[in-house]
Queue: 3 jobs
Job 1
Amino acid sequence: ETGVTQSPTHLIKTRGQQVTLRCSSQSGHNTVSWYQQALGQGPQFIFQYYREEENGRGNFPPRFSGLQFPNYSSELNVNALELDDSALYLCASSLGLADTGELFFGEGSRLTVL
Amino acid sequence: GESVGLHLPTLSVQEGDNSIINCAYSNSASDYFIWYKQESGKGPQFIIDIRSNMDKRQGQRVTVLLNKTVKHLSLQIAATQPGDSAVYFCAENRGPTGANSKLTFGKGITLSVRP
């Protein structure tokens, strides 16, 4: 167990809808990153939050947005869902902004868009 | 374009044998590499990492080798066990300083251990 929890574990939405995914980071970790993992692919970096501020973003459109709260938990919001948004969304927590260090991943939220 | 990729999609090994998983990367500026293991229904789990100023690093039953000349990374697992069956990803950190979370992952290779 990594101590990173995500909810919901599975959900189904239709095109055009909006979704919010949640993540509780490991105790003491102040950095949260979100990744999208399509079936059969490696995870792709969406964005990172450090102390409630966005600290970098991958190649994802603005309809992907996030928040980090004072307790360092985080949300990923996706608006105007598209079929290609169907994927496993992974949250990872870590301590600080070092160049190296282990990321602790949750088990993910599996989103299906119909 | 730049990519981090794996040579083979699947690898089948006999229990007790050593496993070698290979990975090629194309960004010569990358200086930090990591191997992750992902079991079915779970998130990726950190195995071992290596900095570009090293050629080899050993962990418990695992060794990572880095060849910067040919931009190649490999993961060696000694005495492979059924619990090693999973998808393995190599990843590199292409972010700026202080960006340990901005990893670029390869597509993954499935390791299947035969009893």
Job 2
Amino acid sequence: GIQVEQSPPDLILQEGANSTLRCNFSDSVNNLQWFHQNPWGQLINLFYIPSGTKQNGRLSATTVATERYSLLYISSSQTTDSGVYFCAVSLNAGKSTFGDGTTLTVKP
Amino acid sequence: GAVVSQHPSWVICKSGTSVKIECRSLDFQATTMFWYRQFPKQSLMLMATSNEGSKATYEQGVEKDKFLINHASLTLSTLTVTSAHPEDSSFYICSARAWDSPYEQYFGPGTRLTVT
């Protein structure tokens, strides 16, 4: 099956700093989503981004499907950005494979 | 839009009893729902895929007689943990895909099950 690797596994930032999270995948996919899991466990959809670049406020994401990676950028981080960030990939409407996540801690 | 609810949000039950968890898509019709299990500080582990009106497809290693899944309508799927034991204690999360957006998943808030 498809392997998904996220890096770094842990990231500690000072409030206001920028960060880049990476998601590498082992095979061709045509669906990729980024999620933020908050401290209460809720997964929040950030981006559906099988290819290209999208921006939403302080967050943006880029997927280069031909090179099998996606990047999530967080600018001017806030304490509320803390949590675990997951990427999930799938082929067509098949089941998704999740990475192990990046745990982000933003300190005030 | 694309809201998924789960009920209950947490439950404590005694060993040997059964627990039912409901997953509802509130503002869209879900052709496919997924059930995941998550242990502390780990990623999501897919348990089964549920399609409306048909039997669920279970992942390897998941006991289908222990984790009963019913997808009775386009807005409701249920997971029943039968004869629960302490090792079944976990965080259970459902997700749904809409019929008109079959590639995006939307997640419920999760159910924390503790078996004593």
Job 3
Amino acid sequence: TAGITQAPTSQILAAGRSMTLRCTQDMRHNAMYWYRQDLGLGLRLIHYSNTAGTTGKGEVPDGYSVSRANTDDFPLTLASAVPSQTSVYFCASSETSGGHTDTQYFGPGTRLTVL
Amino acid sequence: GQNIDQPTEMTATEGAIVQINCTYQTSGFNGLFWYQQHAGEAPTFLSYNVLDGLEEKGRFSSFLSRSKGYSYLLLKELQMKDSASYLCAPMDSNYQLIWGAGTKLIIKP
């Protein structure tokens, strides 16, 4: 199985432009997550979804939006990119959430540069 | 606030043993995860501890002391492929992972 896929692998984006980072999992996991990873810092949670149709805000949600129309897909949208959003973005999923300690599995990441 | 502390970088020799320490302060506690992350790749799961003590899994072992807010990852018989960053991530009362910045482990022949 593919597990979790992300697209694109990398992208250079002009400030002020919008962009959607795609994430798809084929493990039928209920919970999905978006993190950003910056040099010298730990992974920071942007948004999460405990199950299809629900989303929640993480530690650093400003400037980002998500949707969860079905179990498999969890896109992350930057409405108007700024240079501080330059980062590596990881999508992750876990079998359950909301009271469970299930292991999170990560996609390969998207490297985004905003100029 | 919530805080994770791990060494930024460690160096060890191929075939040796290395211990990577992690201290944490979280709002509530629901276990602690260790992940491995090779440069330019995604984190991959190594271990999970929720009770005090040592969990052994092949060459890797992980220890937890909840009263001390302390964990360590022990890597034995080091191989060059173990060169990576090791991320400590306790889970808080909301079942969210709090990630440390990671320890970059450099293995020398």
